[in-house]
Amino acid sequence: MDIWMGAVLLVASLVAAPIIGFTILFYFFPHILVRLFMRYQAYKSGVEIKFVGDQNYVFCYGEKNEPQPNKTSIIFLHGFTSSKDQWVPIIKRLPSDIHMITLDLPGHGDSSRPGEDEDMSFDRAVDLVNVFLELVNLGDKKVHIVGSSLGGAIAGLFAARYPDKVDRVTMVCPAVQTPVETHLLQQVKQATSKSPEEVTYADCVLLTENVQGVKDMLLSICFSKDLVKFHDQIFKGFLKLRLPKLPYFLRLFRSLTTVNKLDYLEKQAPKITVPSQLIWGQDDEIMHVSGAELLRPRLGDCRHVDVIDKCGHAIHIDRPGALAKHIIKFYREGDTRKDD
């Protein structure tokens, strides 16, 4: 009887331990749970988290597969206040034989945060992407660079400055002054009338300080409104991961109203002579879809303008399958050209 009772207690403890552990994380350390979930998603998708850098800067990035001499690598750049994890749902839907890297931009994710007096312009961001490519031994190879929102603008500007390093560029709802103004662009315009020191978190819907702010942000970037139905503990965990980065995000937003003007990509677009692709959500409330028609005639070689229905600014959340489909179609056009 004692043996059976011991066995029952052992089994009960083995079953109870993970439940108790999850409960503790969920209610007391939700940010750890959120981070573990993101790492699990990356691992499940075959993305390995790595670091590279020098005495000046350390980059964090996710990498899947190794570079191949006969295939172009894809470099993914995320949006404002996001991270490399944004692209995991897309990477897992792309062919497994392609070398892919998703990079944490300066001050985002786990990459180094620029100092208080450092240059935070678009040009500096482009310089750092170039430094990163050199560090991962892709500096002498042409890449397919894909960027979303802020990362979309940086991707386009990188292609304009370094056409010899870019095979093709995909800009997903890039940060640009669209003909139809959204709430965010109105906030940018209002912030422009203030001194940088007067601009606060309240001046940008993407700079969230509380749980309700996180929900409002999701409602503004996503077409689907189901995400706000999650338990508040999930939002608390997500918020705690963001809070340490908020001062930097605020500095970057302030720069968008001074140094980084949102018409910069539009002005540089004629210099983007490599094959280019624009992808936009039909219902984007952050960067209006009218931006596609603004940029299309200005690009030197725009091959595709793909507008996705029932989709907001966060296409990787709303329609990841459709986004992956458009990216790989454009990528394969480059592969076909090489075969010829």
Automatic annotation (TrEMBL):
Keyword Ribonucleoprotein included in the entry's annotation: no
Domain AB hydrolase-1: 73-320
Domain of life: Eukaryota
EC number(s) reported in the record: 3.1.1.23
Intracellular or extracellular location(s): Late endosome membrane; Lysosome membrane; Mitochondrion membrane
An annotated Gene Ontology molecular function: monoacylglycerol lipase activity
Reaction catalysed by this enzyme: 1-dodecanoylglycerol + H2O = dodecanoate + glycerol + H(+); Hydrolyzes glycerol monoesters of long-chain fatty acids
Signal peptide: none
UniProt membrane topology term: Single-pass type II membrane protein
GO cellular component terms attached to this protein's record: late endosome membrane; lysosomal membrane; mitochondrial membrane
Residues spanning the membrane: 6-29
Broad EC category: hydrolase
Keywords: Membrane, Transmembrane, Transmembrane helix
GO BP term, example: acylglycerol catabolic process
Function description: Lipase that preferentially hydrolysis medium-chain saturated monoacylglycerols including 2-arachidonoylglycerol. Through 2-arachidonoylglycerol degradation may regulate endocannabinoid signaling pathways. Also has a lysophosphatidyl lipase activity with a preference for lysophosphatidylglycerol among other lysophospholipids. Also able to degrade bis(monoacylglycero)phosphate (BMP) and constitutes the major enzyme for BMP catabolism.
PANTHER family: MONOACYLGLYCEROL LIPASE (PTHR43798), MONOACYLGLYCEROL LIPASE ABHD6 (PTHR43798:SF5)
This protein's name: acylglycerol lipase
